[in-house]
Amino acid sequence: xxxxxxxxxxxxxxxxxxxxxxxxxxxxxxxxxxxxxxxxxxxxxxxxxxxxxxxxxxxxxxxxxxxxxxxxxxxxxxxxxxxxxxxxxxxxxxxxxxxxxxxxxxxxxxxxxxxxxxxxxxxxxxxxxxxxxxxxxxxxxxxxxxxxxxxxxxxxxxxxxxxxx
Length: 165
Ligand code: SF4
Ligand code: SF4
What we know:
Layout: H1 2-8, E1 23-25, E2 41-42, H2 45-54, H3 59-66, E3 67-70, E4 73-76, E5 78-81, E6 84-87, E7 90-91, E8 100-101, H4 109-113, H5 124-133, E9 139-145, H6 147-160
Helix pairs in contact: 2-3
The structure holds iron/sulfur cluster (2 copies).
């Protein structure tokens, strides 16, 4: 009953009111979100196997060559480059002037859900700060995504966080 009352109250904000018209996003393949400071690209076992298959490798070999354990979870490796710590699968050669994912079809959840992460769409300030700091020229431009789509990606990302390895 209380739950229904909350849903029907126009003054209640479930955190999506600032983006009620949806958000625009279209990747320009600049590669900025796949590099930067030292970080991690998390994946679970199922995603790891999918990436290994996409790379045409046996899973154990894939793990040894391209991944490491950070805080008890698996992450893709990074390469220390002039651009920053590039994800090991960021390909800056394939398309001149672009940086593309070498595993695009099999990329893990955190890559597929970007930029609709909880901490990024928490509020408009967080969205603008992430757009500026990444920097991500695709945020706020191009294709319009509905709130429903964004919330679905958000939930997908939430479900993937902290999964046991
Ligand atoms: S920073 Fe934005 S525009 Fe650049 S590769 Fe990432 S998602 Fe695409
Ligand atoms: S897996 Fe692909 S999309 Fe994800 S960080 Fe690496 S290069 Fe970027």
